[in-house]
Write a structure and sequence with these properties.
By secondary structure, the protein is of the alpha/beta class. The protein has a single domain (about 5-280), classed as TIM Barrel (Alpha-Beta Barrel), CATH 3.20.20. The chain has helices spanning about 15-25, 45-60, 80-95, 115-130, 155-165, 175-185, 190-200, 235-245, 260-280; strands spanning about 5, 30, 65, 105, 110, 140, 150, 170-175, 205-210, 215, 225, 250-255. The two termini are about 15 Å apart. The mean pLDDT is about 95. It binds fe (iii) ion (2 copies) and zinc ion. Zinc ion binds next to helix 6.
Length: about 280
């Protein structure tokens, strides 16, 4: 089954998000657990959550990929930034238990001059403090473009992170197509090779979700500037191969392209068309 969605605005609460997604043709979606720049969260509305859960069930909405705020940096050099990261992760993972079985995706962090090894160790140590054995959410490390001192710009760094988290069965990876492209992986001409490399270094069984974005920059630029699917450096044919690849077809695909709601609706319709075409031809 083709799971496709986009990053919806979280205004109006859970049910509003679900409705927004379904209206645009999505059967999954992503949302920020709070203001992307950080900040406080609203109190949970249990009625809204139970309405949302039945709405999702009735409309086949599954495998939702929540996104932590961008400002989260578990391996910052400044202590107050690390304290904030711990507070956000604790609070968000606690809240996610109200919508069990979903993904919590986050950018691993930036080591800001402390070195990659220290960065990886600090991130994993924090996760080991905020995760617990009975939790029902899977925490995903997002593959990054490798901009500045970002952690997670290579499969090896992601592997190092995964190896250090004790509750391994509650962790996984979200591949962002713009980010891996910017990090240098050639998903345009050698998707099979990139996936083989992912499998060799990390293991394809750890791959849980895909952020589907084009990139404004040439491969290897380490810039992280997203583009609409039809407007970046990666061809539409490459996206058709990605969504139809046997190793990827069961993933939730999430658009984080620079679009308004109408733009997302168009990209979703276009991708469904691209998915069906190949599937019905084979
Ligand atoms: Fe992200
Ligand atoms: Fe992303
Ligand atoms: Zn990005």
């Amino acid at each position: 089954m083709f799971r496709i969605g986009y990053h919806v605005s979280s205004s109006g609460g859970y049910l509003a998000m679900g409705r927004r997604a379904v209206r645009r043709g999505a059967n999954t979606f992503a949302y920020f657990t709070r203001n992307p720049r950080g900040g406080a969260v609203k109190a949970l509305d249990e009625k809204d959550i139970s309405d949302f859960r039945s709405y999702c069930e009735e409309n086949g909405v599954e495998q939702i990929v929540a996104h932590a705020p961008y400002t989260l940096n578990p391996c910052a050099e400044k202590e107050n930034v690390r304290v904030f990261a711990k507070m956000v992760l604790t609070e968000d993972l606690g809240r996610m238990e109200y919508t069990p079985g979903q993904f919590y995706n986050f950018h691993p962090g930036s080591h800001v001059g402390q070195g990659m090894k220290k960065g990886i160790e600090t991130i994993a140590a924090l996760l080991n403090r905020v995760m617990w054995p009975e939790m029902r959410t899977t925490v995903l490390f997002e593959t990054m473009a490798g901009k500045g001192s970002e952690v997670g710009g290579s499969f090896e760094e992601i592997r190092e992170l995964l190896d250090r988290v004790v509750l391994g069965d509650k962790t996984g990876v979200c591949v962002d197509t713009c980010h891996v492209w910017d990090a240098g992986y050639d998903i345009e001409n050698d998707l099979d090779g990139v996936l083989r490399e992912f499998d060799r270094v990390i293991g394809l069984d750890r791959l849980k979700a895909v952020h589907l974005n084009n990139s404004q920059s040439p491969r290897g630029a380490r810039k992280d500037r997203h583009a609409k699917l039809t407007e970046g450096k990666i061809s539409l044919e490459a996206f058709a191969r990605i969504i139809n690849h046997p190793a990827l077809m069961d993933m939730p695909f999430i658009l984080e392209t620079p679009n308004d709601e109408d733009g997302y609706e168009k990209e979703i319709a276009m991708l469904k068309e691209m998915f069906d075409k190949v599937a019905s031809n084979s």
